[in-house]
Design goal:
The protein contains eight helices and ten strands. The protein has 242 residues and is α+β, with helices and mostly antiparallel strands. The protein is globular and about 60 Å long. The two termini are 29 Å apart. The N terminus and C terminus are likely disordered.
Length: 242
């Protein structure tokens, strides 16, 4: 579902951070109480100087910290140490702690259960990740998504390469990679899977991504044999990526 906020659109956490951060993450959306509380706020802390090449033009610090305040029913600040794990090939939380606001507050098991750790990781990773731009300086997540949305006249090959980059970006920030490809290129999940499988066959993805994509393509093939292809509105259909 797309939500309108002051004339600007939000569709998922993957769209959370634009260049000027005029959009907010789904973590912030879910925490908003328009009448009684401010929005959740994210502060990035202690960013490691070492930047990891995560592949396909995506770069991310080796480690960094994130502090989130203003979460609903959390009377204090959530601190997360986030790392890029080269085995999992994505950002993950290494540790999380909650500091109470002060007297009269306490950290309880119920409070800890309410903290959405993965959403914090996604929000913070989207803030620090950088994406290569041909002939220019690396772009922030928001700059890249904004440019991609406004570009016109991309060829089928260029769209395929952008699908590869979007897939890797979604994987690195611990968000749904196929969903990001689908949303940003305006195709169905089925078509996004076929595009990535075409990229795999063409040798445009690394071995680990290729294995992942092969499994997804095989699962989709089995589903379509049973139920027929799923084609979303605005999709070019399942023919792409054959």
């Amino acid at each position: 579902m797309t939500i309108s906020l002051g004339g600007q659109l939000m569709t998922s956490l993957a769209h959370a951070l634009y260049t000027d951060e005029c959009l907010m993450s789904s973590l912030a959306q879910s925490g908003a109480n328009w009448h009684t509380r401010s929005m959740p706020e994210l502060v990035i802390e202690q960013v490691d100087a070492e930047v990891v090449d995560a592949g396909d033009g995506v770069h991310i610090p080796r480690t960094w910290g994130a502090m989130v305040t203003g979460l609903p029913d959390v009377s204090g600040a959530v601190h997360a140490l986030i790392v890029y794990d080269p085995v999992l090939r994505r950002a993950v939380a290494a540790s999380v702690r909650v500091d109470r606001d002060g007297l009269g507050d306490e950290v309880t098991t119920t409070l800890l259960r309410d903290i959405r750790v993965q959403a914090i990781v996604q929000w913070a990773a989207a803030r620090v990740v950088r994406v290569d731009r041909d002939g220019g300086d690396p772009e922030s997540y928001g700059e890249y998504i904004t440019r991609l949305r406004t570009e016109e006249g991309r060829s089928e090959e260029q769209n395929l390469r952008e699908a590869v980059r979007l897939y890797r970006l979604g994987s690195v920030i611990n968000d749904g990679p196929l969903k990001l490809v689908s949303e940003e290129l305006g195709v169905s999940i089925s078509t996004a899977t076929r595009m990535m499988n075409r990229a795999r066959v063409a040798g445009l993805v690394d071995e680990a991504t290729g294995r992942e994509v092969y499994v997804q393509a095989r699962e989709q093939q089995l589903r379509e044999q049973a139920t027929g292809p799923v084609v979303g509105p605005g999709s070019s259909g399942p023919s792409i990526g054959r």
